[in-house]
Amino acid sequence: MQNALDACAHHLHPLQILAGLNQGRSDIADEGVGIGDLLCGRLARHRYDPGERSDALQLFEQSGVGTAEQDLLRLVLPPHCAAQRNQKKKHDCSSHISLLLFRSESRERRFALYITTSGERSGSPAACGSALRVLHSSQETMMDKSEIETQELEIMPESAPRKNASRREFMTRIAAAGVGATASPAVRGMSSSNQTQVAGSNQRVRIAVMGTNSRGDSLAGSFARLPGAEVVTICDVDSRAMAKTQATVEKHQKSRPKGVTDLRRVLDDASVDALVIAAPDHWHAPAAILALEAGKHVYVEKPCSHNPREGELLVEAARQSNRMVQMGNQRRSYPHMIEAFAALKSGVIGRVCYSRSCYNNNRGPIGTGKTAPIPDWLDYELWQGPAPRRPYVDNRIHYNWHWFWNWGTGEAGNNAVHFMDLCRWGLDVRFPVLVASVGGRYWHLGDDWETPDTQSIVLEFEGGKSMLWEGLSCSTLGYPGPTFHGEGGSMLITDSGYTVYDEKSKVVKEVSGEAAAPVDLTGPGFSKDMAHLNNFLKAITSGEKLNSPIEEGHNSTVLGHLGNIALRKQRTLHCDGKTGHIIGDKDAMTLWSREYQPGWWMPRS
């Protein structure tokens, strides 16, 4: 049992069996090691008992699958199965085999077997649920998930297909025992008994980070410092950013993650448990949804969508996948903010009816860009991804894409989401019933900046509550944090603490962040932001409640989207307080979604 634990570290419950496709590599085939071993990167150093390996190979030889077509399958049986057979406990080693047949657009065939034991060994827990290991399916194209076929077959040594059985007969046997033609969430991704956790209480979550020029580099380094995570892949279309973040991670975890340009390679990689998304806004929801469909957990930076419809689709995908999805509004995990909002809820300032917040910066002009050759360090086609195509212009990449509607969401998506989320948390509201916004490009006139650099958004909610957000991209003077105003006083919350005032503006309570209720930051020297990442990891491994589940992230993101729609349409919006949908204004609702580049990711509805 310990051997199995060592061999499958970070990925599989010891009672789970891994199988996979070996693409005709005789050096591996001679050792009887499956491609799944290579993908996990854990089994290669472990030598199984020759008798166990022989039993496994014999089972596949009897199946008659694929040897004539150079698709050599290899199965690794856990030690306890061989031991049970020696004790003549034949049926204790029965397994359920799920065969997923993938076909790509190029029709290049790939097979993968995902196997879990259903037997029970004396002194050990019953076998847990399905173990999915998605294999690299095609170098040329994304997998069409609608073409996945899932079947199950109970296999016991005495009931294996005869040695000379044809592939067609073997497939027929599987089809006869099938339970359906679509993959369930438990089959799509790595799972344990509750289908959300990495197997084993001491396992590390294996992380891939997408988009690492700025925020992603910070996130990758932070995850690498956490004992519950291992950053295994850096995905970026900029080779310079990729190399920089590989070095950042290596400095903290002493192992260098691999680098890939194409997200599809990450989705195909069975060794990745979770995807962290810090790419430009237009990639956030599409990448998150694709990751969920591939069985990955998701940490997505704010805003969680480029438009409200994408956010709705992401919420639905998260519900269907049974995976953990957290948005990067990290203040939801700050200890002093958790304490402050608990105080608001308890009535420390009476009924809270109004909140306001502000974001200010001193951003300079971006100038007038020129169409230019695409740099050799950039895969511009992948950078654009699902967004409609635009020529490469030399002042867009990196960061300035925030200020162009085709890819970004302006300051309302970039920073208002953080503060509107806090205001909404304190007011205890969801979607507004009325939204108005004014603003524009007031500084550095004449450059290419499209979104407003100055913006005010007012939102009214049912129950006599409202909020105001002010965005000042080009002014250094603002105020330090959101304020909440109630019938019995006010509260100011900053990143370092909170202060409570009575109705006469007298300070009645002042709390610094260090004095607030403690939270596990995994050791000294870890920032409050790390608490949010740690919460995400613990939600995966031990079922801890997420501090910002995607439903909350989407709700707060929609507030920024509605402010942008009101500004762009230059009118007040009336909205459904349950969904946020704009009422009686079809023209404004045209901005609820967007156009997508044909042939790339498209929303299903």
What does it look like?
The protein has helices at 2-7, 26-29, 35-40, 50-63, 79-86, 167-176, 185-188, 215-225, 239-253, 263-268, 281-293, 308-321, 335-346, 380-384, 410-427, 528-542, 550-569, 586-589; strands spanning 16-22, 72-75, 95-103, 109-117, 149-155, 205-210, 229-235, 258-260, 274-277, 297-300, 325-327, 352-360, 434-440, 454-461, 465-472, 483-486, 489-494, 497-502, 507-512, 573-574. The chain is α/β, with parallel strands linked by helices and 605 residues long. The protein has 2 domains: 2-188, no CATH class; 332-592, Dihydrodipicolinate Reductase, domain 2, CATH 3.30.360. The strands form 3 sheets. A 9-stranded mixed sheet has the order 19-18-17-16-12-15-14-13-20, with helices on one face. Helix 15 (410-427) packs across helix 17. Mean pLDDT is 74; it is low at 1-61, 63-197 and 517-526.
Strand order of the largest sheet: 19-18-17-16-12-15-14-13-20
Question: Roughly how many Å apart are the termini?
Answer: 47 Å
Gyration radius over CA: 27 Å
Mean pLDDT: 74
Percentage of residues in strands: 15-25%
Tally of extended strands?
20
Describe the largest sheet: 9 strands, mixed
Here the CATH topology of the largest domain equals Dihydrodipicolinate Reductase, domain 2
The CATH architecture assignment of the largest domain turns out to be 2-Layer Sandwich
Q: Number of helical segments?
A: 18
Q: Structurally, how many domains make up the residues?
A: 2
Poorly predicted sequence stretches spanning 5 or more consecutive residues: 1-61, 63-197, 517-526
Q: What's the shape?
A: globular
- Name of the CATH first level of the largest domain: Alpha Beta
Structural class: alpha/beta
The percentage helix is: 25-40%
